[in-house]
UniProtKB/TrEMBL annotation:
It is found in: Cytoplasm. Pfam families: IMS, IMS_C, IMS_HHH_1. Its EC number is 2.7.7.7. Belongs to the DNA polymerase type-Y family. Keywords: Cytoplasm, DNA damage, DNA repair, DNA replication, DNA-binding, DNA-directed DNA polymerase, Magnesium, Metal-binding, Mutator protein, Nucleotidyltransferase, Transferase. Mg(2+) binds at D11, D105. Binds 2 magnesium ions per subunit. This is DNA polymerase IV. Monomer. It comes from Nocardioides marinquilinus.
Length: 446
C-alpha cells in the first residue's frame, strides 16, 4: 500500500455510445445503444439516456429493444473508437511514463512519475484533486467533448472503485487511511473476481458486504473459495493491494469471431467463415509484427453450449494458410449437425518472430482458393443488410452522413457530421451507385 493517493484510474463514460453521440448531432441527449443490431446481438455500451430504461452492457439486443424501443441501435465504428482512444492514451503518456491501459476506454496512471509543466505533480490530496480536474478537462478537449470519470487512491483496486462512484463526469479522491471506511458498506461484488457464482457461495455463508468479508478469517475464505481466490479476497477486503502500474501490457492472443442470425448447418459454409476469420487474425498478427504457436476455435451450438478446441505448432506462424488449415481441422472433430450460432478463430502463444520467414511461405492448401472465395461472400452473411446502422457513408451529391437504417431494398441516411447541426434524412435504393462506405471517417479535431 502506498502512503499517498498516487494511483489514478480514468474511465471514459459510456465510451462507444459517447463517440456516436459526438459524431452524430441528432443523437445527442437521446438513448443510444451500440452493439450487435440483430436478434442475437449483445449490447456493448448504452448511453446514460438508455440506461435509465434499464439497458446495460452484456444484455441481449432483443431485451434492450423491448425496454427502450425508441433508442438508436448502432452497429459500431471501431476505427473511430480506436482513434479516440489513441488520443486519450497519448495524453496520459504525456503526463506519466507509467500508463497501464486496461481497454480502449480505461487506464491506470502512476502519479508518482507524473509531471506537469516540467515539474513533478504534488501528491497531497488537494494537489492530486486539482491535477485530476485539469486532466479531465484536457480529455474533454482532445476527444472533442467526451467526459471521463476519475478515481485516485493509494492502490489500483481502490482507485478503480472510486472512479465508478460519481459517474458520469465525476472525480473521487480517496484520502490515505480512509480506504476501508469507503469499502465496508459496499457489496462484496465490488471486489474483482466476485462474480455471480462466488457471490452466491459467499451469501450462503452470510457474507454480503465487504465488511462481512473483512470479518471472515483467511482459513474460512480458503475453505469457501480455494486458496488463491481466498487469499486475494482476504487482502482486498482490507484494501491491501500493492500491484504496480505496469506501462506495457502485452497482448496474449489475437482473435476474431461472429454471431449469426440463423443457425449454420452447412459445414462448407462454416469452413469458409473460419477461413475468413483466420485471414483477419493473420493480417492483424502481421500488422503488429507478431506470430503465434497455438491456434484455437470457439463454437457456440444451437443450444448455447460453447466448445473450444486448440492445437499447438512447434514454431510460431502468421500465415493465413496455416491458421485457416488448422482451424478447419479443429472444426472437423466437432459435431455441428444441430446448428451453430457463433464461430471464432484465435491465435495465442505470441512471439515477435516468425519461423516461416526462414523457409518462405508454405505451399498453399489446394482447397484454400475455393474456401477463400466462399469466405468472401458467405450466403448467410450476404443475406443480412449491406448497410449497418451507424455506419459512415458518403453520397456523391449530399456528402457525408451515416446509415439510419435499411431494409426492403432501401437504405436511409442522415446527412450530418460532428461539425454540423443535426442533418436531413434521405432514402435511397440499397444499391445506389452514388452511395459509398466511408469506414475510416473520424472527426478532424480528434
Amino acid at each position: 500500500m502506498r502512503t499517498q493517493a498516487s494511483v489514478l484510474h480514468l474511465d471514459l463514460d459510456a465510451f462507444f455510445a459517447a463517440v456516436e453521440q459526438r459524431d452524430k448531432p441528432s443523437l445527442r441527449g437521446k438513448p443510444v445503444v451500440v452493439g450487435g443490431v440483430g436478434g442475437r446481438g449483445v449490447v456493448a455500451t448504452a448511453s446514460y439516456e438508455a440506461r435509465r430504461f434499464g439497458v446495460h452492457s452484456a444484455m441481449s439486443t432483443r431485451e434492450a429493444r423491448s425496454r427502450c424501443p425508441h433508442a438508436a441501435y448502432l452497429g459500431g465504428r471501431f476505427e473511430a473508437y480506436r482513434e479516440t482512444s489513441r488520443a486519450v492514451m497519448g495524453l496520459l503518456r504525456e503526463v506519466s511514463p507509467l500508463v497501464e491501459p486496461l481497454s480502449l476506454d480505461e487506464a491506470f496512471v502512476d502519479l508518482e512519475q507524473a509531471t506537469e509543466d516540467g515539474a513533478p505533480v504534488g501528491l497531497e490530496v488537494a494537489d492530486v484533486t486539482a491535477f485530476a480536474q485539469r486532466l479531465r478537462a484536457r480529455v474533454h478537449e482532445v476527444t472533442g467533448g467526451l467526459t471521463a470519470s476519475v478515481g485516485v487512491a493509494t492502490s489500483k483496486f481502490v482507485a478503480k472503485v472510486a472512479s465508478d462512484l460519481d459517474k458520469p463526469d465525476g472525480l473521487v479522491v480517496v484520502p490515505p487511511g480512509t480506504e476501508q471506511e469507503l469499502l465496508r458498506p459496499m457489496r462484496a461484488t465490488v471486489i474483482p473476481g466476485v462474480g455471480p457464482a462466488t457471490a452466491e457461495r459467499l451469501r450462503r455463508a452470510g457474507i454480503v458486504t465487504v465488511a462481512d468479508l473483512e470479518a471472515v478469517s483467511l482459513d474460512e475464505l480458503v475453505r469457501l473459495v480455494g486458496r488463491a481466490h481466498g487469499t486475494g479476497l482476504h487482502d482486498l477486503a482490507r484494501a491491501l493491494d500493492d500491484r504496480p502500474v505496469v506501462a506495457e501490457r502485452e497482448a496474449k492472443s489475437v482473435s476474431a469471431e461472429g454471431t449469426y442470425e440463423t443457425d449454420l448447418t452447412d459445414r462448407r459454409l462454416m469452413e469458409g467463415l473460419l477461413t475468413r476469420q483466420a485471414g483477419e487474425v493473420a493480417a492483424r498478427l502481421r500488422k503488429h509484427g507478431l506470430s503465434g504457436r497455438t491456434v484455437s476455435i470457439k463454437v457456440r451450438l444451437h443450444d448455447f453450449t460453447t466448445l473450444s478446441r486448440s492445437t499447438t505448432l512447434n514454431e510460431p506462424t502468421d500465415s493465413t494458410t496455416t491458421v485457416a488449415r488448422l482451424a478447419r481441422g479443429l472444426l472437423a472433430d466437432l459435431d455441428t449437425s444441430g446448428g451453430v450460432r457463433l464461430l471464432g478463430v484465435g491465435v495465442s502463444g505470441l512471439a515477435d518472430w516468425i519461423q516461416d520467414d526462414l523457409f518462405g511461405e508454405p505451399e498453399p492448401d489446394p482447397d484454400d482458393a475455393e474456401l477463400a472465395e466462399l469466405a468472401a461472400t458467405p450466403p448467410t452473411v450476404r443475406a443480412r443488410s449491406v448497410w449497418v446502422p451507424g455506419q459512415d457513408v458518403v453520397h456523391d451529391e449530399h456528402g457525408a452522413g451515416w446509415v439510419w437504417g435499411s431494409g426492403r431494398g432501401v437504405v436511409t441516411v442522415r446527412f450530418e457530421t460532428a461539425a454540423t447541426p443535426p442533418g436531413p434524412v434521405r432514402s435511397f435504393p440499397i444499391d445506389d451507385p452514388a452511395l459509398h462506405r466511408a469506414e475510416n471517417r473520424v472527426p478532424d479535431d480528434v
